[in-house]
What we know:
Blueprint: H1 3-20, H2 30-37, H3 41-47, H4 51-71, H5 79-92, H6 94-103, H7 108-126, H8 135-155, H9 162-182
Helix pairs in contact: 1-2, 4-7, 5-9, 6-8, 7-8, 8-9
InterPro entries: Homeodomain-like_sf, HTH-type_Tx_Regulator, HTH_TetR, TetR_C_Firmicutes
Keywords: DNA-binding
Organism: Paenibacillus jilunlii
Amino acid sequence: MNQREKLTQLLLKQSLISLLKEKNISQISVKELCTSAGINRSTFYLHYANAYELHTQLEQDIIDNANNYLEKIEANNNAKLYVLAFLDYIKKNDELFSVMLLTTPNNTLFSKRLLNAILMNIDDHLQLSVPKSKKPFIYTYLVNGSLAILQMWIQERFLVPSDEMADLIFSLADHSMLAFKSKD
């Protein structure tokens, strides 16, 4: 992909984020996206079939970027450092995560995919000893609980420091996994 294509895709994604602050993806037209990005419709259709495809690509980019960011973290088998790094990443990308985790009502699936990818990243790097048969249940519980905590943290404008949030999330997750382990 050349620089012009990258710039076009970046402009479209930025326009989408801006429009998602005001309306749902189902209410955003290709024409609006193009006007906001300053490109013509034929250029849009060279890259995407519709606004939903652009939205899906944006979601995947966020997940990939978060995973790439976390892969660079030297956690030395310390899951709390991964959680803290992820919270700092959210804070650095405040506008993006505010839109994607708070203002877009249909993004529950994206939120869960994002958090599940982060949990898998932690699990892959730290080899958490979670019973394989119970892993899907544990992850579902952790993803839903963590999502609610993250949404509240963003809504509160990061009132609680990242390290305290990481301690809270890790503590809750750790206690949950211990409960499952003790029943094996």
